[in-house]
Design a protein that fits this description.
The protein is an alpha/beta fold. It has helices at residues 12-24, 37-45, 62-75, 99-120, 146-166, 184-188, 196-200, 206-218, 228-239, 242-249, and strands at 2-7, 29-34, 52-56, 78-84, 124-133, 172-176, 223-224. Strand 5, helix 5 (146-166) and strand 6 form a beta-alpha-beta unit. It is globular and about 50 Å long. The model has no long low-confidence stretch (mean pLDDT 94).
Length: 251
């Protein structure tokens, strides 16, 4: 049984990845993983023609990740697609945000993503691919989103190196680095109405990000960023002094 796995599948970009994989019909079953099972049920009902497995997991918790491990052992799936979309951010100075919130960010955005990749790779074969959701925040440290940008730097660096390691197995890994999208992320992060920088930035389209990144992953690409504005930012991050760009990136 060929399987596609999407974490953080209950809303926003995760939903768009489901629509993309559902439209392609290249796997026998799609595993939708998120905390809110009611959202997953509603999503699956939109495509009754697609076989889905709804997995309610809070991936910040180690015991919940253990459930995923046991599920893999039990099912022994042929994983063709893994999309690590679960993650969150928080706006504010490090000294002002809660220790738990920031530690949970690191846990979900970095530790869990690494664990999911490591576990899933035991069930992946040549021709399969991994998509890890990073951010334009991975290009330059972002004051007032310090921990979030650091976690996304990890995701991009991890994915680039993972891709290199997996070439010999014929498996690709792609880091997706979108700019702001009008999804629940902005509200959860406390960004909506609280950041002039975010208010001025162009918005990426989640549907386009999902669809185009899947195409890029299949073609063996390593990093994908939507919109010329953010692609230029990625280039400038390699050319200009970091201190200058941090004055621009601060939220």
């Amino acid at each position: 049984m060929t399987v596609g796995i999407i974490t953080g599948a209950s809303s926003g970009l995760g939903k768009e990845y489901f629509y993309t994989l559902a439209g392609e019909k290249t796997v026998d079953e799609i595993w939708l993983i998120a905390r809110r099972v009611d959202r997953l049920e509603a999503l699956a009902k939109e495509r009754p023609d697609v076989k889905c497995r709804l997995v309610s997991l809070d991936l910040i918790k180690e015991e919940e990740l253990n459930r995923f491990t046991e599920m893999l052992k039990s099912e022994n799936p042929d994983i063709r697609v893994l999309i690590n979309n679960a993650g969150f951010g928080l706006l504010g100075d490090v000294a002002d945000l809660s220790e738990k919130g920031q530690a949970d960010m690191v846990r979900l955005n970095c530790v869990t993503l690494t664990s999911i990749c490591t576990l899933a790779l035991q069930y992946m074969k040549e021709g399969s691919y991994i998509i890890n959701i990073s951010s334009i925040a991975s290009f330059v440290p972002t004051p007032r989103m310090t921990v979030y940008s650091a976690t996304k730097y990890y995701v991009t660096a991890f994915t680039r190196s993972l891709r290199y390691e997996l070439k010999k197995r014929g498996i690709n890994a792609l880091a997706v680095c979108p700019g702001p999208m009008d999804t629940e992320f902005l509200d959860v992060a406390g960004i909506s109405g609280n950041s002039k920088t975010f208010d001025m930035l162009p918005r990426c389209n989640p549907k386009k990000v999902a669809g185009k990144s899947v195409v890029k992953a299949k073609k063996g690409k390593g990093v994908y960023t939507e919109l010329f504005f953010f692609k230029l930012y990625r280039v400038l991050a390699k050319l200009l002094p970091m201190s200058l760009l941090m004055n621009i990136s601060k939220t």
